[in-house]
Design brief:
Helix content is 65%, strand content 0%. It is mainly alpha-helical and 137 residues long. Helix 2 runs antiparallel to helix 3, helix 3 packs antiparallel against helix 4 and helix 4 packs antiparallel against helix 5. The protein is globular, with a radius of gyration of 17 Å.
């Protein structure tokens, strides 16, 4: 019985901690070195924008869509010409396996980001252009 209480208490603490971390206000996320490392080179002249983009992908793959959007937004602010930063915003704001329904705000956000990515894709690599067009479709 004591073990069951400890497990329940641990689960509660973890749930509250996760909830607090994922519901932080925008612009509160820092670049994190303690996350898994994944790199997908994108067309940008700003190394820090690349780091924010990579972090956004890691967070997206980890199903932390709100933090992923925030990371992609940071990449877009650092390099407003980076089509993939806006692609990432649209991807993370869109429907996913844990939330197939989208509210009006998420739909608008995803649409606007995908259209911005399309506008910027002229200077992107061929792979990036294909990803942007596929998502926008």
């Amino acid at each position: 019985m004591r073990l069951l209480r400890r497990v329940a208490a641990f689960a509660f603490v973890m749930a509250v901690s996760f909830s607090l971390w994922t519901t932080r206000a925008p612009a509160s996320l820092d670049l994190r070195d303690d996350l898994a490392v994944y790199h997908r080179a994108v067309t940008t002249a700003k190394p820090e924008a690349q780091r924010w983009f990579d972090q956004g992908l890691v967070l997206y793959f980890g199903f932390n869509h709100a933090a992923a959007i925030e990371s992609f937004e940071r990449a877009g602010k650092l390099d407003p010409t980076c089509a993939m930063a806006f692609w990432g915003q649209a991807l993370a704001a869109g429907p996913h396996i844990n939330n197939l329904a989208m509210d009006d705000e998420a739909a608008r956000s995803a649409w606007e980001a995908s259209q911005r990515a399309l506008e910027l894709s002229d200077t992107a690599s061929d792979v990036e252009k294909a990803l942007v067009r596929a998502l926008a479709a």
